[in-house]
């Protein structure tokens, strides 16, 4: 069965980027489900990571659920500031299916957290091109990266797109409030 993608809110991938992209496990067993729930609820405990590990060792996961579990465990590693572990898991997920957007989106979040803003921008763009289920997060992240890299016009366009895609999300509007648009 195909896994569904879900936004897990609250945990910041940096103070300005308050969401990440977990992947729901549909057909995996209880450990894979537990791994997803931990990522969704931002419960990045050692026990939760152990649950993810047990999904790999104790359950017969479909390729889609294996990919989802890599992404979800990567999110937990990222929340614990274990960037090496997060990178390893996101890289495994991208290798399994390079056309799946959510691993790239999470890798972009990770790179932003690590201060590699230029690479983060590239990864956010890749997630958008691949049709992420959470384009508002990708546009928001790319907007922040563009601003940090000095491309204010592109930053504004991306932040507007994020606000348009998810109007109830306050962060894009808060960022846009800092801008003054003047006709030339």
Write the layout of secondary structure elements.
Elements (H helix, E strand, L loop, with lengths): L3 E11 L2 E8 L5 H11 L5 H13 L4 H17 L3 H14 L4 H13 L3 H13 L5 H14 L3 H14 L4 H7 L8
Antiparallel strand pairs: 1-2
What does the model show?
The protein is mostly helical and 184 residues long. It has a single domain (4-176), classed as Serine Threonine Protein Phosphatase 5, Tetratricopeptide repeat (Alpha Horseshoe). The chain has 9 helices and 2 strands. The protein has helices at 30-40, 46-58, 63-79, 83-96, 101-113, 117-129, 135-148, 152-165, 170-176, and strands at residues 4-14, 17-24. The protein has a two-stranded antiparallel sheet.
List its traits.
single chain; 184 residues; mainly alpha; Serine Threonine Protein Phosphatase 5, Tetratricopeptide repeat; two-stranded antiparallel ribbon; disordered N terminus
């Amino acid at each position: 069965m195909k896994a569904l993608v879900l936004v897990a809110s609250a945990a910041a991938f940096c103070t300005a980027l308050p969401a990440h992209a977990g992947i729901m496990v549909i057909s995996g067993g209880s450990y894979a489900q537990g791994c997803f729930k931990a990522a969704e609820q931002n419960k990045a405990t050692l026990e939760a990571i152990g649950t993810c590990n047990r999904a790999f060792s104790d359950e017969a996961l479909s390729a889609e659920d294996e990919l989802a579990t890599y992404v979800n465990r990567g999110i937990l590693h990222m929340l614990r500031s274990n960037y090496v572990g997060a990178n390893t898991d996101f890289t495994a997920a991208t290798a399994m299916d390079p056309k799946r957007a959510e691993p790239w989106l999470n890798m972009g979040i990770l790179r932003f957290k690590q201060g590699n803003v230029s690479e983060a921008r590239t990864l956010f763009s890749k997630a958008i091109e691949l049709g992420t289920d959470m384009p508002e997060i990708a546009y928001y992240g790319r907007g922040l990266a563009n601003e940090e890299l000095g491309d204010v016009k592109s930053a504004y366009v991306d932040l507007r797109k994020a606000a348009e895609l998810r109007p109830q999300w306050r962060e894009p509007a808060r960022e846009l409030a800092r801008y003054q648009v003047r006709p030339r």
